[in-house]
Design goal:
Distance between the termini: 57 Å
Strand content: under 5%
Largest sheet: none
Shape: elongated
Number of strands: 0
Number of helices: 6
Length: about 100
């Protein structure tokens, strides 16, 4: 017997980690849509996929949720510098233009 819809425990985990903002609704909505597509062909594999993705998103939740108002200018600047260096190392031709 298979249940319809994504695993409820995973949905609660995502809601708890991501909060109630528009980013959380967007991430959960995207996962639900992909789950629905996958469940049409193989519901068991779709539930397994949803669990794996939900745990991965929950572990990275701090990096994908919105920034807090208390972030300092220095922190934001350092984040931008880190991303620029990372892009330069990964794609030097693109970053040098």
């Amino acid at each position: 017997m298979t249940r319809e819809g994504p695993p409820p425990l995973c949905r609660r985990l995502l809601s708890a980690r991501l909060g109630r903002g528009h980013v959380a609704r967007s991430v959960i909505g995207d996962l639900d849509e992909e789950f629905a597509d996958r469940a049409r062909t193989n519901p068991v594999a779709a539930r397994r996929w949803y669990r794996r993705e939900a745990i991965a998103v929950a572990l990275r939740a701090g990096s994908i949720t919105e920034r807090h108002r208390g972030d300092s200018m220095i922190r934001l600047f350092l984040t931008d510098v880190r991303m620029a260096v990372r892009t330069l190392l990964k794609q030097p031709r693109f970053a040098s233009v």
